[in-house]
Amino acid sequence: HRETITRVLNNFRTNGLIELHRGKIVLLDVKALTELSIV
């Protein structure tokens, strides 16, 4: 799961979402982590 999370974070960085939405990215990360955990 850690590799998948890293890839997702790298994709966000590539898209510049972390820089543009530092506050919202946290919510997206939590949601993604929850989905990965459930799966």
What does this structure look like?
The protein is an all-alpha fold. The chain has one domain. Helices cover 90% and strands 0% of the residues. The protein has 3 helices and no strands. The longest helix is centred in the C-terminal third of the chain and has 17 residues. It is flat, with a radius of gyration of 10 Å. The N and C termini lie close together (10 Å). The mean pLDDT is 69.
In short:
With 39 residues, the chain is mostly helical.
- Cα end-to-end separation: 10 Å
Give the rounded overall mean pLDDT: 69
Weakly predicted, low-confidence segments: none
Number of continuous helical runs: 3
The structural domain count equals 1
The number of distinct β-strands equals 0
Derived structural class: mainly alpha
Q: Any idea what the shape is?
A: flat
Helix content: over 70%
Q: Give the helices and strands as they follow along the chain.
A: HHH
The largest pleated sheet is described as: none
| Radius of gyration, taken over Cα atoms and rounded to an integer in Å | 10 Å
